[in-house]
Amino acid sequence: MGNNKNTVEEVKYTWLDFEEDLKAVISGLKGQKFDAIIGIAKGGLPLAVKLSNALKTPLKIVEARSYKNKKQSELVIEQFYPMMWGKRVLLVDDICDSSDTMEAVKDKLEFHIPKVETLVIFKRAGCKFNLDHFLRIAKKGVWIKFPWE
Description:
With 149 residues, the protein is an alpha/beta fold. It has a single domain (9-145), classed as Rossmann fold (3-Layer(aba) Sandwich), CATH 3.40.50. It has three helices and eight strands, in the order βαβαβββαβββ. It has helices at 15-29, 45-54, 100-110, and strands at residues 9-12, 36-41, 59-68, 71-78, 88-96, 115-124, 133-138, 142-145. 30% of the residues are buried.
């Protein structure tokens, strides 16, 4: 990648990686009951849809974004109607970077829902947010290229 300080190392996460991780998540959540799976759009939707189908649990969507052109910017949350989503939900995203998105959405959900658990595929090294479930650690300075991007 050269010596350019602005260059970001990119790591590819494949559909095969996703399917293997999905099996591990489903196995780990076996026997647990959620009233809803909440996917953070857009990155959390592939995992949320698969989990919703596998666990036979309703899917809800929250749109939250804080990146533009691989640069972090202001957090925006939309499509937020949690009042009827149940008492125990699983909040899902593809990656937890700075934790701003996950923390903000979880805080808003907890105003309406007693039990909110969190799940991501990648937890960024140095992320201080206390996730309930994560599958992989992403090094700082590495951009994970998901197959759905």
